[in-house]
Amino acid sequence: MIITKLQGGHGNQMFQVATAFVLAKHYNTKFKLDLSFLQKNNVSTEIFTSRKYELDVFNYKFEFTNENEIDFFFPKYKNVIKRITRKSKRALLKPQIIRDIGNPDDFVKKTSKCTYLYGY
Predict the structure, then answer these.
(1) Does the predicted model carry a pTM greater than 0.85?
(2) Which of 24, 44, 72, 82 is the most exposed place for a label (fewest CB within 10 A)?
(3) How far apart are the first and last CA of the chain?
(4) For residue 89, pLDDT beyond 60
(5) Integer Cα distance of 39 and 42 in angstroms
(6) What residues contact residue 62 under an 8 Å CB cut-off, 6+ apart?
């Protein structure tokens, strides 16, 4: 699964979804949107402009992540059994967390079918 963390305004969100869509198509998997940044940072300040989820204007039903899916990439182990189970899954799937695209030609090489895109 490809997960993209949405950040920024409408244009940024469209780019982030397009990137996730292309990767999901490449790996023949699905993609989901992580709205946690938009939900946690919903108050503007002098140095930060809060943004809302703005992709509901499109006639498309996007899927959203749940806490377990985000925890898979950023684990917060609550007990030993969960820890062992998650470590086993992580070893098999080799999840990638991508924070910088870098050279677009090399971008797909940095990813896998289990990738978390951290705001593009």
Answers:
(1) no
(2) 44
(3) 17
(4) no
(5) 6
(6) 17, 32, 33, 55
Burial 92-116 (b: 16+ CB within 10 A, else e): eeebeebeeeeeeeebeeebbbbbb
Selection from 9, 60, 53, 51 nearest residue 31 by Cα:
60
Q: What is the pLDDT of residues 38-85, one digit of tens each?
A: 999 888 888 888 999 999 999 899 999 998 888 888 766 666 556 666
Beta-carbon contacts of 39 under 8 Å, excluding residues fewer than 6 positions away, are none
Q: Could you give the 3-state DSSP secondary structure of residue 83?
A: helix
Distance CA 23, CA 34 (A): 16
- Dist CA 57 CA 114 (whole Å): 28
- Could you tell me the two tokens for 42? 């919903």
3: which residues sit within 8 A by CB, 6+ positions away? 20, 31, 32, 33, 34, 65, 69, 70, 73, 115, 116, 117
